[in-house]
Amino acid sequence: MLKKINRLTKKKEFENVHKKGRPSFDKIMGVKTVGNELKLNRFGIIVSIKISKQAVIRNKVKRRLREAVRLEIDDLKPGNDIIIITLPLIKSCELKDISDSLKKHFYRLYLYKTKR
């Protein structure tokens, strides 16, 4: 579970990242990031009704994404607002696939503290 201070909650925060963020996309998700003036990273997860009309499946996807983020959060440079935009293929992916994809996006966007 992500701590409350590590979450994007307001509509304006999401809009700011959408408009100004650097993107990285693949078949199962997209990640956009923009710097903030804080000394921590904040994450927002977007799972639209296009993924599934069933809330159970959308919530399952969100839980898997939050867990993947929780495992990586300590290795990231602080000071970024990051949104994760899911695509329909994600509902058939396991946690390992989601985690690998997320790591690839973080690497592409130079979000890791040290080179991997």
TrEMBL record:
<protein>
    <recommendedName>
        <fullName>Ribonuclease P protein component</fullName>
        <ecNumber>3.1.26.5</ecNumber>
    </recommendedName>
</protein>
<dbReference type="InterPro" id="IPR000100">
    <property type="entry name" value="RNase_P"/>
</dbReference>
<dbReference type="GO" id="GO:0001682">
    <property type="term" value="P:tRNA 5'-leader removal"/>
</dbReference>
<dbReference type="InterPro" id="IPR014721">
    <property type="entry name" value="Ribsml_uS5_D2-typ_fold_subgr"/>
</dbReference>
<dbReference type="InterPro" id="IPR020568">
    <property type="entry name" value="Ribosomal_Su5_D2-typ_SF"/>
</dbReference>
<keyword id="KW-0540">Nuclease</keyword>
<comment type="function">
    <text>RNaseP catalyzes the removal of the 5'-leader sequence from pre-tRNA to produce the mature 5'-terminus. It can also cleave other RNA substrates such as 4.5S RNA. The protein component plays an auxiliary but essential role in vivo by binding to the 5'-leader sequence and broadening the substrate specificity of the ribozyme.</text>
</comment>
<dbReference type="InterPro" id="IPR020539">
    <property type="entry name" value="RNase_P_CS"/>
</dbReference>
<keyword id="KW-0694">RNA-binding</keyword>
<dbReference type="GO" id="GO:0000049">
    <property type="term" value="F:tRNA binding"/>
</dbReference>
<dbReference type="Pfam" id="PF00825">
    <property type="entry name" value="Ribonuclease_P"/>
</dbReference>
<comment type="similarity">
    <text>Belongs to the RnpA family.</text>
</comment>
<dbReference type="GO" id="GO:0042781">
    <property type="term" value="F:3'-tRNA processing endoribonuclease activity"/>
</dbReference>
<dbReference type="GO" id="GO:0004526">
    <property type="term" value="F:ribonuclease P activity"/>
</dbReference>
<dbReference type="GO" id="GO:0030677">
    <property type="term" value="C:ribonuclease P complex"/>
</dbReference>
<keyword id="KW-0819">tRNA processing</keyword>
<comment type="subunit">
    <text>Consists of a catalytic RNA component (M1 or rnpB) and a protein subunit.</text>
</comment>
<keyword id="KW-0255">Endonuclease</keyword>
<keyword id="KW-0378">Hydrolase</keyword>
